[in-house]
Design goal:
- There is one protein chain.
- The protein has 175 residues and is an alpha/beta fold.
- It has a domain of 116 residues: Vaccinia Virus protein VP39 (Rossmann fold), CATH 3.40.50.
- The chain is built from 6 helices and 7 strands.
- The relative contact order is 0.16.
- The site of S-adenosylmethionine has 20 residues, from helix 2, strand 2 and helix 4.
């Protein structure tokens, strides 16, 4: 297995938040390392979405290696298409898919987030560009993220805190 893509501080924060979770959703699961860590730490059922076929295949192998295929439901495909088909509610949603799509995924994340649950959005400061001056090529992406941050910070149903870990992580608590 290769090194986790989720930085240690973000993973530690996630595991702390996940402690009492029974149902967790990860959007953009890559090879499944964070899903596996969250399941092993909490025993929660995990629903994961990953668009890249090779990564999804690697995740299946990793789940098998840990003997936890039954506890993790992996949907291979585009989160934009899969999210509207999900039912039920989650205690924790880890949003770590394509950053330009966070705004688009937000209404579905809210629909799927339990009251008292947490939406954790990763990489929301992108090398400091979101609060500073982004390179020309990255302006559009940074604008998407700024708008997403405004969305979660101004949503009356959420209380959002930003942590400077890794590329920045937003933790939104659903009241
Ligand atoms: C930063 S990586 C995720 C890392 C993972 N969460 C972890 O902690 O190990 C982002 C992932 O999102 C996936 N992705 C990109 N576009 C996607 C989409 N439209 N739907 C679902 N997943 C997508 C990528 O293939 C990639 O594996």
């Amino acid at each position: 297995m290769r090194d986790p893509t989720c930085c240690d501080e973000v993973l530690a924060l996630l595991l702390k938040i996940a402690r009492k979770s029974t149902h967790i959703l990860e959007i953009g699961a890559a090879e499944g390392l964070t899903s596996i860590a969250m399941h092993l730490a909490t025993g929660a059922r995990i629903t994961a979405i990953e668009a890249d076929g090779a990564r999804a295949e690697c995740m299946r192998r990793n789940l098998k290696e840990f003997g936890i295929e039954g506890a993790v439901c992996l949907h291979e495909g585009d989160a934009g298409e899969i999210l509207p088909m999900l039912e039920g509610v989650f205690d924790l949603i880890f949003l770590d898919g394509p950053k330009a799509q966070y705004k688009r995924y937000f209404p579905e994340c809210k629909r799927l987030l339990k009251r008292g649950g947490y939406l954790v959005s990763d990489d929301i400061l992108l090398y400091g560009w979101v609060r500073g001056e982004p390179p020309k090529k990255r302006r559009m992406l940074v604008e998407h993220i700024r708008e997403y941050l405004t969305m979660i910070e101004s949503d009356p149903d959420l209380e959002t805190q930003i942590y400077e870990y890794g590329e920045g992580v937003a933790v939104s608590h659903r009241k």
